[in-house]
Amino acid sequence: MKTNIRGQGADDRRQTTDDRCQMSEVRGQRAEYAPRSLSRAKSRGTLHALRAFTLVELLVVISIIALLLGIIVPSYFSIREKAKYTKAKVTVKNLETAFKAYLDHYRTWPSAFGPGTAQEIDESVVNILRGDKIAGNLDGIAFYEFETTNSSDGALDAWYDPYNSALKTYYWVQVDDNYDNKIDLAGGQKLYRAVIVWSPGADRTNDYGTGDDVKSWD
Ligand SMILES: [Ca+2]
Ligand SMILES: [Ca+2]
Known about the structure:
Layout: H1 2-106, E1 119-120, H2 123-129, E2 172-175, E3 183-184, E4 190-191, E5 195-199, E6 214-215
Antiparallel strand pairs: 1-2, 2-5, 3-4, 5-6
Residues 200-201, 203, 205, 207, 211-213 line the site of one calcium ion.
């Protein structure tokens, strides 16, 4: 009987232990649920905060991009204009050298190079300078290598717009056709040179060596 009582006591203690375990499980479940709920609440808050931050971040990024474009775009056009100026400057110098080489070889200017007034470097001049064996270059010497093989365009300058044929601008030349070692410019200025070459410049207007024209003689 005592044994039974003891056994019953042991059962009671086991039952109590089981109850504690169940309670612990419940607490554990609660403890488990509680952080999940909190986690979800936090997640919602974080998501909300994340969305708000993304919008702010987007505005900041847009502002930075606008600022950078404001710096880069003018720089790009400035660099492009400087590149065209440099190209024109090198070309007028090289063309002047080519005309001088022609004069050194033939000791005279052909009629195609103009009657002493400014003229565009057109097809007839290009054909002679590039080495066509024609009147004006019977030896067929190539004095200059032009970018284009289509001489009908003449010598298009650095500001020529290839996408707008209406904006064709050419290099210009004037030679000392009376061989007095002077070139009389349109404005009355005299230059002690055998030949000068220039580009109309960024305004695409021939200012006869003034304004923004790119000159071979300075
Ligand atoms: Ca002269
Ligand atoms: Ca000009």
